């Protein structure tokens, strides 16, 4: 069975700083997707970024980028020039290509301090 | 406007009563999901459905039931067998076929007293 682990329950950084959130996963398969979702205080889940396992290039979306290390089964999220609006819960998620089941980690609560 | 609608936003029930949470999507997605969110527990999968009239148990299916009679609808029933039903419930959908991410509704906060 696949598992997703987020080892940082909570983090705080100053506005404009760079922060990295960690995620590791376990699977014996080679074809899958990884995602980072953001859940602000409104509790609406928002997709931040997506990575296909077959792509070696790390995904980037504006200030958000990932460091995908397939051999190490690691998928960290880097937020550059952090903003107050980045304050939220962040969830790492995993999905096999051959299945629709999506599993999530326990989340990291991120506080951006003014 | 395409999206996923969960209703109601807040729900209160007495202990021992069954309650059904509604989830409707107009995105023409094949797959639908129910997750439970508790503090410190992340999102835990209750049930998911890849196609009409078919669904699979997730990690915490005990005390819950679902149906998928229409592509657009995936209601979740929290039965009296669920020992700790008070939680935030999220419904999601995706295109299916293992291709894309899930899109989420706004959630239902269920409180059982």
Task: Describe this protein's structure.
The complex is a heterodimer of chains A (114) and B (113). By secondary structure, chain A is an all-beta fold. Chain A contains no helices and twelve strands. Chain A has strands at residues 3-5, 10-14, 19-21, 24-26, 32-39, 46-52, 60-61, 64-69, 74-79, 88-96, 102-104, 108-113. Helices cover 0% and strands 51% of the residues of chain B. In chain B, strands 2, 4, 5, 6, 9, 10 and 11 form a seven-stranded mixed β-sheet that branches. Chain B has a four-stranded antiparallel β-sheet with strand order 1-3-8-7, with no helix packed on it. The N and C termini of chain B lie far apart (36 Å). The model of chain B has no long low-confidence stretch (mean pLDDT 94). With 113 residues, chain B is an all-beta fold. The A-B interface holds A 6, 9, 33, 35, 42-45, 47, 50, 91, 93, 95-107 and B 30-31, 33, 35, 40-45, 48, 50, 56, 58-59, 88, 90, 92, 94, 96-104, 106-107.
């Amino acid at each position: 069975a696949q598992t997703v682990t987020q080892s940082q329950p909570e983090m705080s950084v100053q506005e404009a700083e760079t922060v990295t959130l960690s995620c590791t996963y376990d699977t014996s398969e080679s074809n899958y997707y990884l995602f980072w979702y953001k859940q602000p205080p409104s509790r609406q889940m928002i997709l931040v970024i997506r990575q296909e396992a077959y792509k070696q290039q790390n995904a980037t979306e504006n200030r958000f980028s990932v460091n995908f290390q397939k051999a190490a089964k690691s998928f960290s999220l880097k937020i550059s020039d952090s903003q107050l609006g980045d304050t939220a819960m962040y969830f790492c998620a995993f999905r096999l290509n051959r299945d629709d089941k999506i599993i999530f980690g326990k989340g990291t609560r991120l506080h951006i301090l003014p | 406007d395409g999206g996923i609608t969960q209703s109601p936003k807040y729900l209160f029930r007495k202990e021992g009563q069954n309650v059904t949470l509604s989830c409707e999507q107009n995105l023409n997605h094949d797959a639908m999901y129910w997750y439970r969110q508790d503090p410190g527990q992340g999102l835990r999968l209750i049930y998911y459905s890849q196609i009409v009239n078919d669904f699979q148990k997730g990690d915490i299916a005990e005390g819950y039931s679902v149906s998928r009679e229409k592509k657009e609808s995936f209601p979740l029933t929290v039965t009296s067998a669920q020992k700790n039903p008070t939680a935030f419930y999220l419904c999601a959908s995706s295109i299916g076929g293992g291709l894309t991410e899930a899109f989420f509704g706004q959630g239902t906060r269920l409180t059982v007293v």
